[in-house]
Amino acid sequence: MRYIKILTAFFIFFALFTVILPDLLHAQNGTFDAQNYAQKSFELQKKGMILLGSWATLNLISGSTGYFLSENDNKYFHQMNAGWNLVNLGIAGFALYNLGQSDPSVLSYSDTVSELQNLDKILLFNAGLDLGYMATGAWLWERGIRKQSHRLKGYGKSLLVQGGFLLVFDVILYLMHSPITKEAIYYADLFEITANGFRINF
Asked: How far is CA 58 from the centre of its chain?
């Protein structure tokens, strides 16, 4: 499994120094600026999709190469990695296109809060699906061992790796996004009390 270790180490290095670390080091200024919440969410989503697209591209290259250079279950492991990440690349590309066409400044404050909450729910739902992918992978791997099937063992290992990555991806994105949602809700409630229900549009 040296391949997985190298792939994972490279990707973690890339993620930390290009996307995650700058956001983790960024300090909140503690001021109320309603217009920025949607923009913060959009920017975080863009970075997340760039990470997903990078992971997909890396797996497409290594998976396609590994398929022709490997044998037995490793051959099918690489095949599933490439096929799985062809879908991931499509998802990332479509999401980035939609984000590029969207203008967060046209959303009202209440609509922004609703969008933020919906994204948090989607990320948690996806995390549940990721556990399902991993469970399916474990089942396929075990079944492959019993039936002495290189295909099932390779596919099972791949689903474990890909499901594990997506689980970490979705959980980290949720942990980075949910504070934006909570802060927006806090100020929404505070404004409603102090401004007596006056509506802000931005």
From this structure: 15
Taking alpha carbons only, the member of 132, 134, 169, 170 closest to residue 155 is 134
Q: Name 34's Cβ contacts closer than 8 Å, sequence gap at least 6.
A: 109, 112, 184, 187, 200, 202
Both tokens of 153, joined, read 């063992």
Question: What helix, strand, coil percent values describe the chain, rounded to 5?
Answer: 85, 0, 10
- Burial 85-121, CB ≥16 within 10 A → b, else e: beebbeebeebbeeeeeeebeebebeebbebbeebbe
Specify whether the CB–CB gap between 73 and 153 falls below 8 A: yes
pTM (two decimals): 0.80
Asked whether the beta carbons of 66 and 3 are under 8 A apart, the reply is: yes
13-39 pLDDT tens trace:
555 545 554 444 443 444 445 568 888
Cα(188)–Cα(184) distance, integer angstroms: 6
Residue type for position 62: S
Task: Name 201's bridge partners.
Answer: 108
Task: Give the C-alpha separation, 148 to 80, whole Å.
Answer: 18
The amino acid sitting at 134 is: M
